[in-house]
Amino acid sequence: MPVKIRLQRHGRKGKPFYWIVAADSRSKRDGKLLEKIGTYNPNTNPAIINLDIDSAVKWLQNGAQPTNTARALLSYKGAMLKNHLAVGVRKGALTEEQAEEKFKTWLDEKEGKISGKEDGLAKDAADKKAAILASEKAVNEARIKANEPVVEEAPVTDSEETASNEEE
């Protein structure tokens, strides 16, 4: 039975949510699955990917072929790297400890990049919010100045000037 690791669509119209599953390649997109190995939510920034890496590696070692999108997600979470390191251990190029150490360092780097992106997005959102607040303050000040009653002195006419001069 040819097995594929692919996405199974859930969620409502316009708000997709995917399960990452191992399924028979002949079954329907949202049909019968062999095992659910994770979830993918593209509606957030950055997208949320939950993946059971060990289960994904097990399916990859048993011959499951990921689709293009599933391959990108597996690569992003490190399942493809872990599978590659497992092949190296099997062939004797690495020891189990060396493979685990390489995988841990890769995970730490990846988490640093992700947290950096989240921090950058939070900073951009805060800057945008501050800019909006400043522009609203400027608009409000302009409205207040436009609505202030202007006290103007009545213009002095020539007859009033002569009358005031005569009184002096």
Number of strands: 5
Walk across the major sheet and give the strand order: 4-3-2-1-5
Which CATH class of the largest domain applies here? Alpha Beta
Largest beta-sheet characterization? 5 strands, mixed
Helix and strand element order:
EEEEHEHHHH
Fraction of residues in β-strands: 15-25%
Helix content: 55-70%
Per CATH, which architecture of the largest domain?
A: 2-Layer Sandwich
Distance between the termini: 117 Å
Q: Helix- and strand-based class?
A: alpha+beta
Rg for CA atoms: 34 Å
Poorly predicted ranges (pLDDT <50, ≥5 residues)? none
Overall geometry comes to: elongated
CATH topology of the largest domain: S16 Ribosomal Protein, Chain: A
CATH superfamily of the largest domain: Ribosomal protein S16
- Quickly count the domains: 2
Helix segment tally: 5
Please specify the SSE layout and strand pairing:
Elements: E1 3-12, E2 15-24, E3 35-41, E4 48-51, H1 53-61, E5 65-66, H2 68-77, H3 79-91, H4 96-147, H5 158-167
Parallel strand pairs: 1-5
Antiparallel strand pairs: 1-2, 2-3, 3-4
Concise overview:
With 168 residues, the chain is an alpha+beta fold. It contains five helices and five strands, in the order ββββαβαααα.
What does it look like?
With 168 residues, this protein is α+β, with helices and mostly antiparallel strands. Helix content is 56%, strand content 20%. It has a five-stranded mixed sheet with strand order 4-3-2-1-5. A hairpin with a 2-residue loop joins strand 1 and strand 2. Helix 1 (53-61) crosses helix 3 (79-91) and helix 3 packs antiparallel against helix 4. It is elongated and about 120 Å long. The mean pLDDT is 87.
